[in-house]
Amino acid sequence: MTILVTGGAGYIGSHTVLALLEAGHDVVVMDNLSNASEESLRRVAELTGRTVPFHRVDLTDPEGLDRLFSSHSFDSVIHFAGLKAVGESAEIPLEYYYRNVAGTINLLRAMDAHGVRSIVFSSSATVYGDNHHAPFVEKMEMGANNPYGRTKEQIEDILTDLGASDERWSIALLRYFNPVGAHESGRIGEDPSGIPNNLMPFIAQVAVGRREKLMIFGNDYPTVDGTGIRDYIHVVDLAAGHVAALNYLTAHGGVHRWNLGAGTGSSVLQVLNAFSRAVGRELPYEFAPRRPGDIAESYADASAALADLGWSTTKTLDQMCEDHWRWQKNNPNGYAD
Ligand code: WQD
């Protein structure tokens, strides 16, 4: 099939493009490159021997989207493009609602106008908010506690209403937990701009000497060692989950939502120790106050994706750290190298 991947030059997007090509699909990428480098696509082409047509298009440009859908015959869309920093979303909420929600509406209108009615949407476990206790289950009520999470929640609602209004649509809502790691080649990986918000890229930058030490946000949570617990999922496993969801949509209409997680939690200290094992030396850290908005524990009930898609994670936390470290060690400054 021919798949449009929005945000396909990004971290999860580029790994999913690679998985789609390896599964025999043809792929076209659109990205505005606001938080990604076209170099990632050049490396995907290097790894697969397949070229990937790239269009620099912004979701807030309806004319650009119309030209894109007129120039290709897409069977489905995998939609990653959007702003994704929780803290930043509280500082510039209007930009997040404009780019994520209005941008997605533009995309869906272009799809409908061109008869493309199959979409896999990149949602997030952040939609569960802090109203529930882990493990999180898909039927739980959403209740994000930040503007970024609310954009994901609103887009899920839009897609749910769209699917209910028109049976021609096939829709998968994928709720990611904590994506980490990198392709085993070390050629593509996470390349956050500025100071990393997320744990593993920050640890990786400490290990490669770009950051002095890890600040651990809180060691007084009611957890095994007092530090926050999250469900880390290898980005290659996550990409495979997208291919599985895409295959499911070829045979099923309607709206479907799945958690994509390992179904188990790891604490900050457990991640730091695993990363230290991958690097071969202890990494410096200091305990700091809790980060506002953080919850103690977040991990998935991943049974629905296994039952419906036959998908589950395969990689261990040590493999996630080894692969993340290989990427960071080989590319100390990300794609800028
Ligand atoms: C993980 C743990 C922190 C950094 C966020 C978004 C979510 C998704 C993934 C987009 C927590 C601790 C972190 C640091 C630390 N993104 N930590 N020091 O907050 O679970 O999820 O990213 O979809 O939507 O909410 O991930 O990596 O920021 O934090 O101690 O320098 O590491 O307190 O316990 P989080 P994270």
Topology:
Layout: E1 2-6, H1 11-22, E2 26-30, H2 39-48, E3 54-55, H3 62-71, E4 76-79, H4 86-91, H5 93-113, E5 118-124, H6 147-165, E6 170-176, E7 178-180, H7 199-207, E8 214-217, E9 229-230, E10 232-234, H8 235-251, E11 254-260, E12 266-267, H9 268-279, E13 285-288, H10 303-309, H11 317-330
Parallel strand pairs: 1-2, 1-4, 2-3, 4-5, 5-6, 6-11, 7-10, 8-13
Antiparallel strand pairs: 9-12
Bound molecules: UDP-4-deoxy-4-formamido-beta-L-arabinopyranose (WQD).
Organism: Arthrobacter horti
Cofactor: NAD(+)
Family: Belongs to the NAD(P)-dependent epimerase/dehydratase family.
Q: Determine the structural class based on helices, strands and strand pairing.
A: alpha/beta
Strand content: 15-25%
**Biggest sheet descriptor:** 7 strands, parallel
CATH class of the domain at 2-181 and 232-261: Alpha Beta
Q: Count of helices?
A: 11
Strand order of the largest sheet: 3-2-1-4-5-6-11
Shape: globular
The named CATH superfamily of the domain at 2-181 and 232-261:
NAD(P)-binding Rossmann-like Domain
Please tally the β strands and state the result: 13
SSE order in H/E notation?
EHEHEHEHHEHEEHEEEHEEHEHH
Notes on the structure:
Pathway: Carbohydrate metabolism; galactose metabolism. It comes from Arthrobacter horti. Its EC number is 5.1.3.2. Keywords: Carbohydrate metabolism, Isomerase, NAD. By secondary structure, the protein is α/β, with parallel strands linked by helices. It has helices at residues 11-22, 39-48, 62-71, 86-91, 93-113, 147-165, 199-207, 235-251, 268-279, 303-309, 317-330; strands at 2-6, 26-30, 54-55, 76-79, 118-124, 170-176, 178-180, 214-217, 229-230, 232-234, 254-260, 266-267, 285-288. It has a domain at 2-181 and 232-261: Rossmann fold (3-Layer(aba) Sandwich). It is 41% helix and 16% strand. Helix 6 (147-165) links the parallel strand 5 and strand 6 (170-176). Helix 1 (11-22) packs parallel to helix 2 (39-48). The radius of gyration is 19 Å and the shape is globular. It binds UDP-4-deoxy-4-formamido-beta-L-arabinopyranose. UDP-4-deoxy-4-formamido-beta-L-arabinopyranose (WQD) binds at residues 84, 86, 124, 126, 176, 178, 197-199, 202, 214-217, 228, 230, 268, 291, 294, 298.
